[in-house]
Structure formats: C-alpha cells, structure tokens
Amino acid sequence: MSSHREAPEISKDPVADSTDLYAFVSPDKPETVTIIANYIPLQSAAGGPNFYEFGDDVIYDIRIDNFGNSKWDITYQFQFSTVLGNPETFLYNTGPITSLTSSSWNRKQVYTVTRIDSTGEHVLGKNLACPPCNIGPLSTPDYATKLAQPAVHTLSDGSKVFAGQRAEGFYVDLGSIFDLGNLRPFQNLNVFGKADGFSSAPGVNATKLLNVHSIAIQVPIGRLTRKGRPTIGVWTAANRQRARIHDPQTGRVVTSGPFEQVSRLGNPLVNEVIIAMGDKDRWNALQPHKDSQFTHYFANPELAGLLPVLYPGVFPHLAALVASKKPRADLEAILLTGIPSGIIPNFSNFTGTVQADMLRLNTSIPPSKSPNILGVLGGDLAGFPNGRRVFDDVVTVEVRAVAGVTYPLIDPKFTPDAAAGEVSDGLTPSSLGMPFLDEFPYLGVPFDGYHDPSS
Amino acid sequence: MLKGAAGVGAAGLAASALASVALPAAAATRTPVRTKQGPSSENAGGEAIVVHVRDAASGEIDVFRGTTQIRLHDRDLAARLVRASR
To answer: Which residue blocks in A171-244 are alpha helix, DSSP H?
Structure first.
C-alpha cells in the first residue's frame, strides 16, 4: 500500500511501520502547515484486549528540510510512555471511559514532543495524553467530543498536536492490485483477467473500516520555512535501539544502544512499488540524501514495464518508451527533486538537485477552494505531489504518471496512451466509509469495534 | 542479532555475563561509534548493557549501554567472552 508493510523487515514490526505521510497548507488555517505521519497499519477496530498503541521503545520523527540539501533542518520528535493503572486485570478498561483521565481506563499513553533545530533541542510538550482506541459505544461513549477532541493539545510554541487512533484515510484496491495488477475497472483488458472472462467492475477498498495511528502536528508556516524558500521537504522516520534482547524472566524485550532508523516515508508508494525487494530494508535504514544510489529504480521503474505486458495492446506508447530505455526524468523530478519552475505554469516545488525521496510542499500555494483528488494532475496545484492532502488519490496519480501521462513534461513530442489518462483502481474518498474532518487532525474518527468489528 | 553472530563464531552476552570479565582499560582500543541521536528516553531501555562480539578473531566488540555504543578492539577480551559463553 502507500507504505503499509512495504518491506520485509518492517512488515514484522508494525509499531514502527510508517504507513502514510501527509503535508499540506491547512485549509481552515492557511497560515499553518499540517503534517500527519501514520503508523501501525491495518488495525481491525475490534483488536482487543490489547488495543493498538505507539511503541514506548520507538522514537518517531517528522523531519523537515528547508535548505534544499535533503538533510533535515528541523525534527519534531515524539516519544511515548504507557501507564498501566491496574496490572491485576486483563481489561483495557473496567468501565466507560468518559474522559482522558478516567480511572476506568486501565492502559493510557502519554508522550513528549521535542523540536530539534539549529538552536538546539526544545521540549514543546510533556505528558500529553493520547486518546484511547475507539472500543465501542459502552466503553468509549462520545468518542469524538469527550476523548478525541480533548487529545488535541497546544504546544508551548503555539503549534497543535494530536497523537492517537484515527480512521484510515488511504484508499486502495489492494486485493486486485496484488492479484497480478488486475485493476477491477480494467480487468477485462488484463491478460489474466481476460483469459478468465472477467468483466469490468468497480474497485473495492481494502482499507475500508480499518484504523491507523496518527501523529499530527500543525505549525505556523514561518516556523518551518526559511526566508525566500517557501518549499519544504518532509519525511517521517521511526527509530529503534540497535540492541534488543528477549528477557525470559519478564517475557519482555530489553533494548540498549543508539537509536537507528528502521522505517521512513516521504512520497507514497516509493518503497512499495518503486524500490525492489532486495533493497527495501536498506532503503528504510538510509537517509533521503543518499537516495541517488536508487535512481535507476525511478528512471526505469519496473511497473512501467509491467503495464504493457499485463494489458496487451493498451499501452503501446508506454511500451515503446520502456523499450527505448530513456530515463523517466518526469518521475525523477516528481519524486526525487521536485518540479522546477517553467514546467507547469505558476508551479514549482523544486528543492534542489540532490535526489531524495521527500514529500515536497510549496507553502506559498494556498489551499484550493475546489480541491481535485488528482492534485496537480487534475489542475489543483495545492494537491499531491505538492505535498499531500488526506483525500488525494495518490494511487491513481502515481499509476497514471508511471503509465506515461507526465512524460510530456520533459518530452513534449511524446503522446501518452489514451489509457494512461484513464487507468485507476476505481476508488474515491467515499470508499473509506468515514468522512474526513474539516479541522485538525483532519483524518476521520476511528471506527469502533462494536459497530465495525471486521472490514 | 545474536543468532547471526553465533553463526560466524562470535558471541553475544548480556550484562550479567560481562560483569564477570574485567575490561582491560589499557589493552582495549575504544571507538565511540555514535552518541545518542535524540533526547534521552527513560522508557527506552534503562541501563541494560549488551555486548556483541562481532568478530572474535579480530577482537571487535560492540558494547551497548543506554543510548550509546562503544566499539572495542580487544582480542583477549573477545577470547575470554567466547570461552565464558561456552
């Protein structure tokens, strides 16, 4: 998926598995930027009695490059601590949880937010409460107003923060995509689907009714940018200590040593479908400014070669482009450097020549009054790949880009296949089953296990 | 990590095992590999000490404590740790 379980090692460590990253100028507070980093994928709402929580032994980072060298200049660091009220019960809660301080909530989590920049380390908030997971109407009544909303905190520098469970906002038809690229709306054209007599069908969202854990922060733009440089590069990273030993006496893991990065995420789907299996774990451990060693995956992506094979006769122009072995400078620009000025009218999110997978947001572009889920591809310069909003259809945007629809940006003589502008997994935000919020933290109220016990 | 280390003839020992072995201050070459990356975390491991003999033949040993790592180059200590682990 966007980055859910995208690499062999991190798929075994969901607490540290970054799944999605969003960065956008806040639509209701356009003087601020909102950044959301999601972790712990594919949560079934009924997943008790040990409901989902952040890792006390993980350091979660949101990193920002505002200088253009693809190295972080600002890091927001989040460290969590679990507080067990009564170890003599197996229950997450012993009665209704009616507030963040409710004594019947047995397993709480609090966190510290630290900003690290050129002036040092600054603790912006301590003992900030996470909301509980959304259990059900008896355990977590009035979830949105009594538990989630009070978990939005104001930090000492005026920024807002939230960390806790949210409804999954990423939509994708995983079941079809990973079944030999058999996009349901076009499965009558897929080489295998056609052989099996499949006909075109609507997409099915694999993340419907699932939850995720979000770390969201809303910061005044001026706290993130440098003068004259409105574009920032953003990524999230999770770090674990190098040494881990299972202690059989306690049944727990003992950790020691320096923290090292085990997961990172900038643009959606990069480590998922661009980077090859043999490099995925190493990619997760590296800093973005070292990404030039992976350029070949972007210049000649495997998926571009697969589409004409999976859909015979549908992508002849793409097939010719792949056969030419010309590097996909369009994809390199979109995903590794940002798009320079002069390519798309009134738009640039170029950060510099250092190739690095970062989500690049030009903060000088105001929120769109008429958002298009296809973002820049749909003529909406406030959307992906200019940052990423919670509702952007990044699957369709990236599949179409790989299919060649963006290649004319660097070669006007190239005519994309008609199908390149149509291909999609056939989903929209309505496929999620939970509306987004109009205000921070924007991702929807998590599904509860009573009403939606399974997806 | 430990399983992999054992496969190449090295040994990984927890703090209790290390306590029986005196660190020879003069003989060992110490290289601080990396200091803590972020603010110290009282929730992230306490003061557990983990020793990883990376290569017994060359005496390369990593010692993890708190949020730091020290790399030692001490063939004698490595050999004694290997013997102690048997």
So the answer is: 174-177, 191-195
Q: How much is the ipTM here?
A: 0.74
Contact criterion met (CB < 8 Å) for A239 and B38: yes
Q: Which amino acid is at B25?
A: A
- Taking an 8 Å cut-off on Cβ atoms, the answer to whether B64 and A59 are in contact is no
The Cα–Cα gap between B25 and A56 comes to 35
Q: What is the H or E stretch that residue A81 is in? A: strand A74-84
Pick the residue from chain B with its C-alpha nearest to A60. B38
Which amino acid, one-letter code, is at A4?
Answer: H
Chain A residue with the nearest C-alpha to that of B69: A257
Is residue A343 exposed (0-12), middle (13-18) or buried (19+ Cβ within 10 Å)?
Answer: middle
The 10s digit of each residue's pLDDT in B25-69 is 334 455 544 433 433 334 444 578 999 999 999 999 999 999 999
Question: Would you state the structure tokens that stand for residue A389, as one six-digit string?
Answer: 């909003």
SS (H, E, C) A175-189: HHHCCCCCCHHHCCC
Nearest-by-Cβ selection for A258 from B46, B49, B69: B69
Burial class (CB in 10 A: 0-12, 13-18, 19+), A220: middle
What gap in Å lies between CA A364 and CA A371, rounded to an integer?
16
Contacts of B20 (CB under 8 A, 6+ apart): B84
Q: Residue A310 to residues A275, A306, A322, A403: CA-CA distances in angstroms?
A: 20, 6, 14, 12
pLDDT tens for each residue of A339-395:
999 999 999 999 999 999 999 999 999 999 999 999 999 999 999 999 999 999 999
Query: Which of B 40-69 lie inside 8 A of A, CB atoms?
Result: 41-46, 48-50, 52, 62, 64-69
Predicted TM-score (pTM) of the model is 0.91
